[in-house]
From TrEMBL:
This is Pyruvate formate-lyase-activating enzyme. PROSITE patterns: RADICAL_ACTIVATING (PS01087), RADICAL_SAM (PS51918). It is an enzyme of class 1 (oxidoreductase). CDD domains: Radical_SAM. One of its GO terms (molecular function) is [formate-C-acetyltransferase]-activating enzyme activity. It is found in: Cytoplasm. Its EC number is 1.97.1.4.
């Protein structure tokens, strides 16, 4: 029954190498409420019918399983977005079946839909039970700056990190480094201090801002507000990594 649950699929990738351990099958879901100024996948934002393929959890899992022989060294399935937590029933269906088959599951999320209110929270707790790894973007510690960067508060996102920490879940934490926007010393130090209070963090990474997604903004006729911003230099990345205290 659960396997008949449908998901709005943006795309799949057979040999992902960065979104979780080992080689992974990545499922990118359609739809995200945030509007990060540096988003490199703005085509995943809207949930219009022409933007996605509707597929069952069983069908997507069947496709993923074709690649199982490559999932050595902790590889498996990652569900990403868009924002995967907007389609929790689908993620739950895929991961529940995957766990029955002994497959490693990772959820790549920015945490924006997280709330301890129902009906979200009950499903989230069930999802936690079948998710081996959460890959969580922490975009900005200061709430006002987070709003300017993404259009939303970060309170519930930090609460989600806290919840995962308190409930023994494994996490990778990522921070996109945008020169002049998310690279202030105070912000990076605050991020370091917050991460230091969490349990279960297996990796902390800085992702350098890049401009590969800009043509997508142009194609969608969306105003891109960071056209003056250049990707960080290796020295700027090293400085941020030191301040945040990255490790793998
Ligand atoms: S959360 Fe991710 S998909 Fe959504 S706008 Fe931000 S970068 Fe883009």
């Amino acid at each position: 029954m659960t396997r008949e649950i449908m998901g709005k699929i943006h795309s799949t990738e057979s040999f992902g190498a960065v979104d979780g351990p080992g080689v992974r099958f990545i499922i990118f879901l359609q739809g995200c409420h945030m509007r990060c100024r540096y988003c490199h996948n703005p085509e995943t934002w809207k949930s219009n019918e022409e933007e996605y393929t509707l597929r069952s959890a069983e069908d997507v899992l069947k496709e993923a399983l074709r690649y199982r022989s490559y999932w050595k060294n902790g590889g498996g399935i990652t569900i990403s977005g868009g924002e995967a937590l907007l389609q929790m029933d689908f993620v739950l269906a895929v991961f529940s079946s995957a766990k029955e088959k002994g497959i490693h599951t990772a959820l790549d999320t920015a945490g924006n839909p997280f709330t301890e209110e129902e009906p979200f929270f009950s499903t989230f707790k069930r999802l936690c039970a079948v998710t081996d790894l959460f890959i969580l973007d922490l975009k900005e510690m200061d709430e006002e700056k987070h709003k300017q960067l993404t259009g939303f508060s970060n309170k519930n996102i930090l609460a989600m990190a806290r919840y995962l920490s308190d409930h023994g879940k494994h996490m990778w934490i990522r921070h996109v480094l945008v020169p002049g926007l998310t690279d202030e010393e105070s912000g990076l130090t605050a991020l370091h201090d917050f991460i230091a209070t969490l349990h279960g963090v297996d990796r902390v990474e800085v992702l350098p801002y890049h401009v590969l997604g800009v043509p997508e903004w142009e194609k969608l006729n969306l105003p891109y507000t960071l056209e003056h911003v250049k990707p960080p230099t290796p020295e700027e990345v090293a400085r941020a990594e030191k301040l945040i205290g990255t490790f793998a």
